[in-house]
Amino acid sequence: MTPFLTLESRTVVIPRDNIDTDQIIPARFLKGTTREGLGQHLFADRRAELGSDRGAQVLVAGANFGCGSSREHAPWALVDYGFRAVVSRSLADIFRANAIKNGLLPVIVDEAMHRRLLDAPGATVAIDLERCELRFDGAVARFAVDPFARRCLLDGTDELGFLLAQEPRIAAFEKERSAC
Amino acid sequence: MPSSPQTLFDKIWNAHVVVPETEETPAVLYVDLHLLHEVTSPQAFAELRARGLRVRRPDRAVATMDHSTPTTPGRFEVLDAQCASQLSALRENCAREGIRLHELGSDAQGIVHVIGPELGLTRPGMTIVCGDSHTSTHGAFGALAFGIGTSEVAHVLATQCLLQRKPRTMEVRVEGALGPGVTAKDLILAVIARIGMAGGTGHVIEYTGEAVRGLSMEGRMTVCNMSIEAGARAGLVAPDDTTYAYLRSQPGAPLASDAGARYDRSISLDANTLEPTITWGTNPAMSSPIDGRVPDADSPALRYMGLRPGQKLAGHPIDVVFIGSCTNSRIEDLRAAAGVLRGRKVKSGVRALVVPGSRKVKRAAEAEGLDRVFLDAGAEWREPGCSMCIAMNGDQLKPGQSAVSTSNRNFEGRQGPGGRTFLASPLTAAAAAVAGAIADPREYLR
Description:
Chain A is α/β, with parallel strands linked by helices. Helix content of chain A is 32%, strand content 19%.
C-alpha cells in the first residue's frame, strides 16, 4: 500500500446521496478471483458521471456513500481507477473500513464545506493527512480520521501485520476460554 | 460492588475482547465462527499465500457456494467460466486449508446465512463474521454477527481476530402485535423507513418489545438480516424460549440486556399500526403501506421505477416475482407464499421464481408438498442459491422489468441492469404473482 501524506488534485463530483456499492461496482463484475483491473467497471451503469478527467484523484460524493454490500471490490475499483480519497458528509461503515485498508482516504467534512465542494466540480483541493486538513479555495476544513487508520495510511503499514504481532495474546485468550 | 447494567451487545463484545481498545488502537476482537463463500474469499486466501501464512483455525470456518451458483432446477453445472473458476478456487482453498465446504449439489449447501443456523453453527453469545453484509442475520440468535470486507476475511483466516472500534448501541422497541398479513418483513421495512438508510450507521441495533418476542426465529432472522439496510453494523435479538426451542437445546447462562441498561439511542414503534409494506423507490427506506401512494413530487427514483408521482401502488403491473434470498427463503417464508398460491394461478405473462434458501429447506418444502403448490400455480421451483437477489448467476431481470421481490435491496440494477425492484414480504410477493400487479396480501388470506 502506498503511504498517504498529502494530495493535491482536481475533484470529480457525484452529488447524489446514498450511492450504494451496486452502483460503484455492479455484482456482475464480482466474478473474478483477483482484485486487479476493476477500475474499468467502476460505475459501469453510470459511467458518464465520472466525466473525462482521468487525472482527478479525489471523488466528492453525496452523503452515505458506499452503503449496501460489504464488497471490497468497491474500493478496489475506485483505487484502480485512480482515486486516492473520497470526500463526503458521511460514509457507510463497511465501505469506510474497506477503503482505509486499500489506501483510499475517507474524508468526512462538514455540511458547509461539502456543499462548496459539490458546487465546484473539477476544483483543485489539497488533502493533508498529517494535519487532517482539507484545503479548498482559501478555506481549511479539519477532518477526523481514526488514529490507528491514520497511522496505517501514513506509514503504509498494514493491519494484518499488526494483528499477527498479537499472536501471543490471541493464544492466551483461547487457552483461558477453553479452561472455563 | 455490582457492576453497571450492560446491554446484550456489551456482554458479547466484552467476552470477545482479546486486547482492549485504546485511543491509538482498536480492540482486537475474537471471532468464534467465520462463514465463507466464493465471491469475497479468493483474494483473502491469495493474501495468505502471498505472505506464507496458513489458516489459523480452520475448525472455526465453514464455507458454502451460493452467490455465483446457478439455480436451474435439477442442474448443478456452472456454465459461466468466471463463476466456475471462482467455485474451483473455493474448493481448492478449503481443501488445502482443511475448511469444511458445503459444495454445490451437496446435502447441506445453501445461502450462507440460511445454512449457518440450520447446521447449528450459529449459537447465542457468539461472534460471527462473513464477507457479506447480511451476516447480521445471525443476530436473531443473540450472536454478534456482522459483515466484513475481503481484507478482513484475510485477517480472520490468519489470526481468528479483527481490529474493531466498539460500535454504539441502538434499541428498536416494537410493542403491540402484528395484524393478519403483516409480517417480520413489513416490520423491518417500517423500521428502515423510520430511521433512514443511514440511521443505524455506527450502531448495533437490539430489537426488543412484545412484537419482536412474538416473532418466530425465521421472522427474527428476516428482521436482523435487513439491519444493514438501515446502515447498522449488526442487529440482535436476545435469546429466549423461542430461540432454544429452535436450537433444540437448553439455555445456557441467561443472555439479555440488564434492566436499566443504557443504549446510545432508542426508538419505538407500535406493531398494531403496521401494514403490509412495499418499497416504491431505489433504496430500502423508500417504502409505503401497500394501500398507499408514491410521493407526489417527481424524483429520479420514481422515474427509474417507471412510476407516476402520486400514483397508487396497488394495481401497478409487474413482470416477475422473486421469492428467495437470505432475507426470505426459509421454510416459514415458503409456507406463507404457498398459502397464497395454493389453488391459484400465477397471472399469465408473469414469471414467478421460488428459490429455497438451502437444500435442507428445499427437502422440507418438498416433504410438505409445497413444491407441488408452486409448480401447479405456474411458478418455477429452483435449486438453492442467492439467485435473483444478486443477479450474478444467470437469474436476473431484463431492463425495464418490474419485480416484486422478497430480497433485501432495491438499488438500481441490483437485480439486473435496468431492473425495477419492489421489496415486500413473501405473502405480498405471492399475492402480486396471482394479481400480476402489486396487491394487498390480506385479500388473499384464507
